[in-house]
Amino acid sequence: MLLLLLLFGGITAIFAGLIALFQYDIKKIIAYSTCSQLGYMFFSCGLSSYDVAIFHLFNHAFFKALLFLSAGSVIHALFDEQDIRKMGQLSLILPFTYICFFVASLAIMGFPFLTGFFSKDFILELTYSRFIIDSLFIYFLGIFAAILTASYSIRLIIFVFFQKGYSKIYKSHYIFFSSHIVECDLPMFLPMFFLSFASIFIGFLFSDLFIGWGTNIWVNSIYILPAHFSLIQVEFIHPLIKNLPVILSLIFMLFTQIIIFYSNFFSLAEYLNYNYFKKLYRLWYNFSSFFYHAGFFNNIYNNIYLYLFQLSYYSINKFLDKGLFEFLGPFGFYKLIYIISKLNNSITYNIFLNFGIFIIFLFNILIIFFILNILIYFYSIFIFHLSFFIVIISLFIITNYNKNLN
After folding, report:
1. Residue 403's pLDDT is what?
2. Which of 6, 63, 84, 332 has a CA 20 to 30 Å removed from the CA of 156?
3. Cα first-last separation, the chain
């Protein structure tokens, strides 16, 4: 697992650095620079130097925030323009922004005694001090990433603040509107000033706190196995190895500046008549186009990943989430309760209807029985009186008949 962290960290640092080197959007260059620095943090974790990775993250926050704020100041001054090919000669028009940009760029390059130097170079020294083939391979990947950092940083400064125009098509036309280009206001001036101070001094001030001998800042939060502890070996590395990232960064800064300077005076068109230069130019064009499009990861993301995402959305959301899960969950439960309630209502309605009819039938029977009882009662009295009257009449007739016989 640590070897994978080492490999992915080193490859990320180089790949993102190459992408930044071929970009022309000022914010994209800084954003891919962030990805490259994250590669350093990853292979620092692959070395089990988690405290150093956090220290580099802490330092990186200051000079990268300064870079983004300085880029925002340039974009705001140039009326929302982000293409560095359309910029140039802004060092005299935006002097404070230029100083902040330059300080942040030196810090991210790991220039001696600036903030980035105390964490970035220390990560490379830790990588070399492991003395295994994997670490040596990652060390040279980190050196190459440091060279790329120096190259795209100085390229960005030259394009934005010094050169007069990239080509006949993209000339620095903002210089003609210099009266409308103004420096940043106080709300941006203050944070840029304090971040500039932090980009110079914060690494020195906090190095002992984060990675110094005997520091107790992490307490028991970070545990490093004794076999992975290599701070002692760092102190005995050859000075040339220690200073190699800085030396190569300065050399390639100068080399990048020379290439950009002479590319404005020599055109490739007159050399393309030769087949050798045509093949070389085509190879360079394909190489730069690959990294300009970020290794075509955006195309892969837009055409394949988004399609798979939409497919998974329809399959998961439509058929599972709003299909099976809702049928078995709230919607199905609601339908079940609804069916049970409907059935219960029909059964209850029939029961109550039949029961009502039965009650009415019983009530009618009781009424009829009561009426019959009354009728029978009154009828029986009438029969009794009638029979009594008949008996009396009969007795009267019999007595009178007997008297007449006597």
Report:
1. 47
2. 6
3. 150
Give a yes or no: residue 98 inside a domain. Answer: yes
Distance, in Å, from the CA atom of 291 to the CA atom of 286, rounded to the nearest integer, reads 9
Spatial distance between the Cα atoms of 43 and 10, rounded to a whole number of angstroms: 6
> What domain range includes position 164?
2-292
Rounded to two decimals, the pTM is: 0.73
Residue whose tokens read 């800084």: 30
C-alpha distances in Å from residue 270, one per residue of 30, 170, 260, 277, 283: 34, 20, 18, 10, 18
Residue 359 lies in a domain: no
Q: Is 148 helix (H, G, I), strand (E, B) or coil?
A: helix
Work out whether the CA dihedral 3, 5, 9, 12 comes out positive or negative: positive
Q: Please, is 364 exposed, middle or buried when counting C-beta atoms within 10 Å of its C-beta (0-12, 13-18, 19+)? A: exposed
DSSP 171: B
DSSP SS3 for 352: helix
Q: What confidence tens digit (pLDDT) does each residue in 79-97 have?
A: 888 998 888 888 888 899 9
On whether residue 335 sits in a domain, the answer given is no
What percent of the chain stands above pLDDT 70? 72
pLDDT of residue 400: 52
Nearest to 130 by CA among 239, 3, 35: 3
Question: What is the Cα–Cα distance from 116 to 145, expressed in whole angstroms?
Answer: 14
Show the tokens assigned to 2.
Answer: 């640590």
Q: According to the model, what pLDDT value does residue 168 have?
A: 45
Measured distance CA(174)–CA(170) in Å, rounded: 11
Determine the Cα–Cα distance for residues 118 and 203; give it in Å rounded to an integer: 6
CB-based contact 129:118 (threshold 8 Å)? no
DSSP 181: -
Whose tokens are 């393309």? That residue is 272
**Total of domains in the chain:** 1
Which residue type, as a one-letter code, is found at position 396?
Answer: F
In whole angstroms, what is the distance from residue 12 CA to residue 29 CA? 15
Q: Which of 6-15, 128-137, 233-242, 265-274 has the highest mean pLDDT?
A: 6-15
Rounded Cα gap, residues 155 and 230, in angstroms: 36
Question: Please, which residues bridge with residue 350 across strands?
Answer: none
Q: Which amino acid is present at 399?
A: T
Position 356 scores a pLDDT of 58
Distance CA 275, CA 290 (A): 23
Residue where the block lists tokens 């039965």: 358
Measure CA 191 to chain center: 26
